[in-house]
Write a structure and sequence with these properties.
Blueprint: E1 2-8, E2 17-22, E3 25-32, E4 35-40, E5 54-56, E6 59-61, E7 68-70, E8 76-78, H1 84-93, E9 101-102, E10 104-107, E11 110-115
Antiparallel strand pairs: 1-11, 2-3, 3-4, 4-9, 5-6, 6-7, 7-8, 10-11
Length: 116
């Protein structure tokens, strides 16, 4: 795995979500609880830009359909905020998929992310 610098610590304040670029990829950076997290930028449900989402602890909520993911491991907390038969149809058309997360390494004031 190769670690690439994606941002500086000062550019990602506590509680924020930021879009970052590295190695030809766009990724999401999050800073919560004193930790930095990196993940794919677009929601695996319907492709919304997750940097416009909300963050509560390590749970990231998609701005489009309320899908939620834990940034510690990418697991699906909630696939969508839809209910009833619409939820059943949504799960069949787009089965739940975890969010791809990437290892983060700190080097002084630099935030480095590893890509496979």
């Amino acid at each position: 795995m190769e670690y690439l610098e994606v941002s500086r610590v000062a550019d990602v304040p506590e509680g924020s979500l930021r879009r970052a670029h590295a190695g030809g990829r766009e990724i999401l950076l999050a800073h919560t609880g004193g930790q930095f997290y990196a993940a794919e930028l677009f929601c695996p449900h319907l492709g919304a830009d997750l940097s416009a989402g909300t963050l509560r602890g390590t749970v990231l909520t998609c701005p489009l359909h309320g899908s939620q993911f834990d940034l510690r491991d990418g697991r699906v907390v909630r696939w969508t905020d839809l209910t009833g038969t619409i939820l059943v149809a949504a799960r069949k058309s787009r089965p739940p998929r975890p969010l791809q997360c990437y290892p983060v390494w700190m080097d002084g004031e630099r935030i480095l992310v590893a890509f496979p």
